[in-house]
Write a structure and sequence with these properties.
single chain, about 375 residues, alpha/beta, Rossmann fold, 10 helices, globular, oxidoreductase
Length: about 375
């Protein structure tokens, strides 16, 4: 027997996908699932109830638990007795300063420690044709192990909270980023796959329905309509060729209202804010939902306490390196989001609109 597992996020794309499934498949074989990340606005959870009542269905809630991983990290920190220091290493360069990427036998780039004759030359790597230089005494590198002070701080803060997103970041000692977007993998994909594998173990075949569109991003421009994942799971993306407006019109034609967050300046509904939030949407969130920003500021302190470098920024401020993150918070990014002209001038018209006024990027306020 085939089970149709529909991933539902509370957005219009997943709603349109769910409606297509209900119109083409036996209702008793459809299982809508919602992966609770712990970083959604309450309006998303209220909207799930609305959809359940409107369509007379039950949406299965899935929620990740990182208590076991946090417990293992506590043991690791408490027992960490590593000695030594980690020194910066760079590729060898020629006399013109261009990197010379020598390779090891395993194909990896061979790296060399930074040498210096004096403090001014500390950043200079070893150069071909020069005599090897001695590392000066004050260039002592970075301590590898947890200090006793850091251990006490981390062990006092590192306890499961029950919020999947916060617990994940406390376990990792950092927040996700554009290049390390582990939140999607840990909080959504892994939970959905685990649920589907349980169905396969029960003797079912699984067709995983996903509300993915090719025009969403460059990463999805080549998304296939149907794809075999393996292990008895197939992925089906029925609206892959649609546009966002087509999804809105389709849901409206079936008598369903969109998630109210779309009329409150949100381009996507899910995490609030998402780590990939754009400048305009972050400014809108700070005006309409300041409590969401305050919550993330509290999370930054909790995650920083669990980090060896005592720093964690939910969204890195433009131009801020990880080593400078200790002195920057999400409030710095919010202030930047209220500016124009590349951050050089505050948007004088940004605060004129009432926070309760309808604001939709998709023309839903008419």
């Amino acid at each position: 027997m085939i089970k149709h597992v529909v991933s539902f996020s509370g957005g219009v794309d997943s709603l349109a996908t769910l409606l297509v499934a209900l119109e083409n498949c036996p209702r008793e074989d459809i299982i809508p699932i919602f992966c609770d990340t712990g970083n959604e606005h309450q309006a998303v959870h209220d909207y799930l109830v609305y959809v359940e009542q409107a369509l007379d269905i039950e949406i299965v809630r899935l929620k990740a638990d990182f208590a076991e991983q946090i417990y293992a990290k506590r043991i690791f920190i408490a027992r960490d007795q590593r000695r030594g220091r980690k020194h910066r290493k760079v590729p060898k360069t020629d006399r013109n300063g261009n990197p010379v990427y020598e390779k090891n036998k395993d194909g990896s780039v061979r790296m060399y420690p930074i040498y210096a004759d004096n403090e001014d030359d500390l950043e200079d790597p070893i150069v071909i044709g020069q005599e090897p230089r001695q590392r000066i005494g004050w260039d002592s590198g970075k301590r590898i192990r947890w200090s006793n002070k850091a251990k006490r701080r981390a062990l006092a803060a590192l306890h499961p909270t029950g919020n999947p997103f916060l617990d994940l970041c406390m376990w990792k000692g950092r927040f996700p980023s554009r290049k390390a977007q582990f939140c999607t993998e840990e909080l959504k994909r892994n939970m959905a796959v685990s649920f589907q594998l349980d169905l396969i173990d029960a003797g079912h075949r699984v067709l995983s329905w996903q509300g993915v569109r090719r025009d969403e991003s460059m990463n999805r421009r080549n998304a296939k309509k149907i794809e075999r994942i393996g292990g008895g799971i197939w992925t089906f993306r029925p609206i892959v060729e649609w546009t966002k407006l087509q999804a809105f019109k389709f849901c409206s034609s079936r008598g369903l209202q969109p998630n109210p967050l779309y009329k409150q300046g949100m381009g996507r509904v899910g995490c609030m804010p998402c780590i990939n939030v754009n400048k305009a949407e972050l400014a809108e969130i700070s005006r309409r939902f300041p409590e969401a920003i305050e919550e993330k500021a509290r999370w930054e302190k909790q995650v920083a306490a669990c980090s060896k470098r005592m720093a964690a920024t939910f969204i890195p401020a433009p131009g801020i390196t990880p080593s400078q993150a200790k002195d920057n918070t999400i409030w710095h990014v919010v202030e930047w989001a209220k500016t124009t002209r590349g951050g050089r001038q505050f948007d004088l018209l940004g605060d004129l609109a009432e926070p309760t006024a309808c604001a939709s990027a998709y023309g839903l306020c008419g």
